[in-house]
Amino acid sequence: MRAIFFSTIPLIKGENFVQNRVEPPVLISRVMIFVLAAAMVVLAVLFVTLYNMFPLNRPQIFFLETAVRDDQYVKLVEMPPESTSLDDYKKSFVREYIRHRNEVVTDIETMTKKWNAVDGDVYTMSSDDVYANFTKTAMFNAMMGGGMPNFDFKCPVIFENAPMPMPAEDGRDNSMDTFLVKFNYFCADSTGRTPEKGYTIKIRIQSDEGTKIKWADRIENPLGLRVVEYTVSSGGSDPLDMEFLTTE
Q1: What pLDDT is attached to residue 6?
Q2: Burial class (CB in 10 A: 0-12, 13-18, 19+), 96
Q3: Three-state SS at 183
Q4: Most CB within 10 Å of its CB: which of 3, 117, 119, 181?
Q5: According to the model, what pLDDT value does residue 126 have?
């Protein structure tokens, strides 16, 4: 009779002879979780970016034309219906008007473009009476009359808030024609600066049916809006008549 002997190897406690490895399905699951987490982070960043972009600085109105000429005019037959976008555009228009009219920068070409009586921004955005009063201010005559050879001079406009619509005085339902704008203002050159002063301006805008605008003005004033009233409600005299720094 043949004897058969079996040898046994004792197992050591805690020792695992099974190779540790990650099965393919588990590995794929972990990769998918990582990809999903990264996508969620990207979406969160995108959402925050888009949230900070709105409302946009200015709703832009575009004209589409097949043949464009410099002497072409656009006739506004009917204003678009009232909407939030139109209200935002009007507020943006008022804000830009305040900046064009009162802000002085250290670039004579920019100032000439904003203030001249041919195609200047203030001229394009103002009624004849409002622009005529603008040309009577001390700052306008000092700047456009060439009385400031030292052009190291600036007057920034610092808005306190967005233009606030006022109720219409004639009882109309639409109150998005008259606004109150609050801002601070000072002037400075290389020798110093004037004290900062707060102003509140009342502005009334208007666009009549049949208004014509130049094709070149379609970007700055596509709806043909005009400021028909510009009144200093608080702060004293016109900001452009303040005691500003003189230069030798």
Answers
A1: 47
A2: middle
A3: strand
A4: 181
A5: 92
> Would you say the pTM of this structure is higher than 0.70?
no
Confidence of residue 157 (pLDDT cuts 50, 70, 90): very high
- Arithmetic mean of pLDDT, 59-87: 59
In angstroms, rounded to a whole number, what is the distance separating the alpha carbons of residues 56 and 92?
10
DSSP string spanning 18-69? SPP---HHHHHHHHHHHHHHHHHHHHHHHHHHHHHH-S-S--------SS--
* Cα separation, 169 vs 124, whole angstroms: 26
Domain coordinates of the chain in residue numbers? 73-241
User: Is there a contact between 201 and 232 (Cβ–Cβ < 8 Å)?
Assistant: yes
* Residue bearing tokens 């976008």: 85
Dump strand ranges (E) for the chain.
73-75, 153-154, 157-159, 164-165, 178-185, 188-189, 192-193, 197-206, 212-214, 226-234
The CATH number of the structural domain formed by 73-241 is: 3.10.450.230
> Which residues are CB-contacts of 184 (< 8 A; sequence separation ≥ 6)?
157, 158, 160, 196, 197, 198, 199
Contact in structure between 89 and 62 (CB atoms under 8 Å): no
CB 152 within 8 A of CB 106: yes
Answer whether 234's CB lies under 8 Å from 181's CB.
no
